[in-house]
Amino acid sequence: MFSKEVNDASSSSSNSSTKRNLIVVSNRLPLSVKRSEDGSYLSSISSGGLVTSLSGLTKTTSFQWFGWPGLNPKEPEEREEIRRSLSAHNAVPVFLDERLAQAHYNGFSNSILWPILHYQSGVTFDEEPWNAYKKVNEIFADYITEAAQNGEMIWVHDYHLMLLPQMLRERMTRKGRSPCIGFSLHTPFPAAEALRVLPVARDLLQGMLSSTVVGFHTEDYRMNFAESCHNLLGAKPQDHMIFFKDRLVRTGKFTVGIDPGKFTDTLKKDDVQDRIQQLGERYKDVKVILGVDRLDYIKGLTQKLHGYEQFLTEYPNWQGKIVLIQVAVPSREDVKEYQDLETQISCQVGKINGKFSHADYAPIIYLHKSIPFSELAALYSIADVCLLTSSRDGMNLVAFEYVACQEQRNGVLVLSEFAGASVFMGNGIIKFHPANTKEISQSIHKALLMNKEERKERYGKLRRFIDENTSAKWGHDFVEKLSAGAQ
Ligand SMILES: O=P(O)(O)OC[C@H]1O[C@H](O[C@H]2O[C@H](CO)[C@@H](O)[C@H](O)[C@H]2O)[C@H](O)[C@@H](O)[C@@H]1O
Ligand SMILES: O=c1ccn([C@@H]2O[C@H](COP(=O)(O)OP(=O)(O)O)[C@@H](O)[C@H]2O)c(=O)[nH]1
């Protein structure tokens, strides 16, 4: 479902004369490939913000996307079939041995690096997953060095591939080429003291510093990176540049966005309008709060539920008149912390529903699944409030998507001050500290009581922001900076 719409969006307004050639690299391809019963291969779109933001880029930039396809058949014919099926989407599979891929993705990237980037304490370093991380970065480097024979620019994404710029530069320099490599981090970059907890922090910093341009979501993340490079490597940051080992590395803040038109167009479709009407009827007597999050501890779902429970207790008149629809998209289910979180959230939802429900009312509708794009757009459109409680979050595109679908209703966005998005949304949002349960409760109350004029005024600011900062602009700005760095 998402896959088709991504392609529709790219073909509807692409302009090949302005497109540039680029190799985009991310750990995971936007499509994951699965073998069906009849032996053929089917691809479906992956979830998450990185996929959303890069999909929007297809409007202005033609690129080949390299990444792990999610499976590793032994037979050459099968690999060829996968290659063929993906090439229709300009995607190129980087095949990885299953155990190696798991140790890289679950073992190091998501169990060690991700928590440190999001200020989680109590992480234990382990050599084995680190070796897998290095090995996978090397495999990617071999693939890309082979593919980038014609001087294409290379844009590497995210924390799974922090060593890749260095490995690429070394390989390509040995071949007499001078590569142009961009690196974009989609997570927060923590303060130097938090990063130091990781014994291999210096290796990761050196990996990133082999880029031509390094991009972050916010100015704070960029400054944290510069400070870490200075403190841990003795590099010299100056303005938006860092001098290290006779090279000058450009750094910048690039505001990732969405493609608002994709949402506006979807909302106009007859079936989506029917669904909006149906949902409107179902919830005509209650206010709807919506949450859409991957089931990840950084999204602050336990805090959200505590805050909502406090709200129902503190403002009992709202009992029976409010519903929280929480979509929790399954994520990283092989990692123990994520399994434990799922159990915890299910218990919390059960407890709150048990406490405040009546035979004809439940305060929480909990969807532990990925939902179709059209259903997501309909939910965004009917929600009076969107509540996002991340304890840390690189950006949070859900915040932007809610705004894209609220032209009619002018609903209120209640957003954690620790989501990167909150930096840009000023007083258009109600901002709160996610560890403060009372503040969450009061923010919900404030959002529900806000009058039409104030909602309209706030909405106007948010709408302007998402319309001016699209994913296409993000891609364009980054590639411009990268081209400038190459000269
Ligand atoms: O691929 P997964 O392990 O399922 O995770 C999904 C994505 O999660 C992270 O997304 C981040 O990127 C978003 C877009 O820039 C940003 O809005 C969000 O705050 C980040 O959490 C991760 O960085 C991606 O690589 C994953 O694909
Ligand atoms: O069932 C769903 C619900 C949401 N999303 C998308 O997942 C992305 C989440 O991105 P965000 O930046 O908010 O957080 P991330 O999951 O990347 O940390 C958004 O584009 C959502 O539309 C999805 O793919 N499937």
From TrEMBL:
<dbReference type="GO" id="GO:0005946">
    <property type="term" value="C:alpha,alpha-trehalose-phosphate synthase complex (UDP-forming)"/>
</dbReference>
<keyword id="KW-0328">Glycosyltransferase</keyword>
<protein>
    <recommendedName>
        <fullName>alpha,alpha-trehalose-phosphate synthase (UDP-forming)</fullName>
        <ecNumber>2.4.1.15</ecNumber>
    </recommendedName>
</protein>
<dbReference type="GO" id="GO:0004805">
    <property type="term" value="F:trehalose-phosphatase activity"/>
</dbReference>
<dbReference type="GO" id="GO:0003825">
    <property type="term" value="F:alpha,alpha-trehalose-phosphate synthase (UDP-forming) activity"/>
</dbReference>
<dbReference type="GO" id="GO:0034605">
    <property type="term" value="P:cellular response to heat"/>
</dbReference>
<keyword id="KW-0808">Transferase</keyword>
<dbReference type="GO" id="GO:0005992">
    <property type="term" value="P:trehalose biosynthetic process"/>
</dbReference>
<dbReference type="Pfam" id="PF00982">
    <property type="entry name" value="Glyco_transf_20"/>
</dbReference>
<dbReference type="GO" id="GO:0005829">
    <property type="term" value="C:cytosol"/>
</dbReference>
<dbReference type="InterPro" id="IPR001830">
    <property type="entry name" value="Glyco_trans_20"/>
</dbReference>
